[in-house]
Amino acid sequence: MREIKVGIIGLGTVGGGAISILTRNREQIVRKLGFPLDIAAVCDLNAKSRTLPDGLEGALVTEDWRELVSHPNVDIVAELVGGTGAAREMVEAAIANGKAVVTANKELMGLQGVALGRLAAEKGVPLAMEASVCGGIPIHAVLKEGICADSVRAFYGILNGTSNYILTEIEQHGKAFDDVLKEAQRLGFAEANPTADVGGFDARSKLVLLALLAFGARVEPASVPTEGIERITPTDFRYAKQAGCTIRLLCAAEATEEGVFLSVRPSLIPVTTILAGVQGAYNAVWVKGDFGADTFYYGRGAGPLPTGVAVVSDLMRVARELRHGSAARVSPFSFTDPRD
Ligand code: HSE
After folding, report:
1. For 19, 65, 125, 203, which has the most beta carbons within 10 A of its beta carbon?
2. 206 is catalytic
3. What ligand 1 atom has the least distance to the C-alpha of 160?
């Protein structure tokens, strides 16, 4: 059987984390897979003039993503660029060329994921996106496989690491919003344009994706009531404390007879609940199933290595699927027929 090779587009925070794990944890990855998973090519806008991460010896280095997605040695394309413009073209072209795709792109998957999933299914190639929601928490795997026998009634999440980091720094140290945001950018949590983080839009994309996985329900992101954390001050935390609460950017999803209701908004959370203990750049998802009742998932929601683990775990999952000829083993969104 042939070996499986990876092409990585985007050498930013997530791409760097993924390359570091593929390189530093290579031996364990080979032992787990039973075959090597090597990087055949990398692409970035300024790949030829920048210092590249270690571990790329022998890999094609290009600034032209079209060269990477059509390269005969690349079996799996990892789209780690983000956004919905060029990234969409990259994913479509990779699928059209018969490549499997792994992506961390919540915005693209939240908006176009179902259509792209159909393209991948038609072409018979896997599409995987574990890193798109909650960085280091394997919530896709949980909903697609771990608890797929359950019927999810509701879930609640803290889905944006930057917002949670900012809120807990304001709460614990009374720091100014702008200073904490800069720190979150330095640590690699915040997006290049942090409006998406603090405005609730990053969390909204993730919420929409989780609603697909949990309920099989397709929800237009723009239709989700969304409020960010920009207006939260230390004074709000003082009032919250008097009421026995803290404040978190809460993503809520409920499936009712009337339909699926989603929202993103800063919410008072009683300090006695498990969600109140989620601090810093950590994320959490609390799932309520009809049969299995409550389950709770917790972990780092952002940062190069936790997100890198999600990307590389997807690469390993997809490599196994390619190796064993089972691309459509599990639908990318858990349900085979996502509905409006
Ligand atoms: N900016 C995102 C966050 C990164 O802060 O959660 C992970 O999606």
Report:
1. 203
2. yes
3. 6
Residues contacting residue 74 through CB under 8 Å, at least 6 positions apart: 5, 6, 7, 40, 41, 68, 99
pTM of the model: 0.95
pLDDT by residue for the chain (340 residues), tens digit each? 468 999 999 999 999 999 999 999 999 999 999 999 999 999 999 888 888 888 898 999 999 999 999 999 999 999 999 999 999 999 999 999 999 999 999 999 999 999 999 999 999 999 999 999 998 999 999 999 999 999 999 999 999 999 999 999 999 998 888 889 999 888 888 877 899 999 999 999 999 999 999 999 999 999 999 999 999 999 999 999 999 999 999 999 999 999 999 999 999 999 999 999 999 999 999 999 999 999 999 999 988 999 999 999 999 999 999 998 887 788 899 999 898 8
For ligand 1, whether the C-beta of 191 sits within 6 Å is: yes
CA angle, residues 67, 71, 74, in degrees to nearest 5 = 125
Q: Report the relative pairing of strands 60-62 and 37-43 from DSSP bridges.
A: parallel
Q: Is the CB of 62 under 6 A from ligand 1?
A: no
**Cβ atoms within 10 Å of 122's Cβ, excluding its own:** 9
Radius of gyration from C-alpha coordinates of the chain: 20
The span from the first CA to the last CA of the chain, in angstroms, equals: 41
Tokens representing 278?
A: 């989620």
Catalytic residue among 5, 99, 144, 206: 206
Q: How far apart are CA 273 and CA 251, in angstroms?
A: 16
CA 79 to chain centre: 12
Whose C-alpha lies nearest to ligand 1, atom 4? 302
Can you say how many angstroms the Cα of residue 191 is from the centroid of all Cα atoms in its chain? 13
In this structure, what DSSP letter does residue 226 have? B
Pocket of ligand 1 contains residue 130 by CB under 6 Å = no
Give residue 283 CA to ligand 1 midpoint distance, Å: 9
302 within ligand 1 shell (Cβ under 6 A): yes
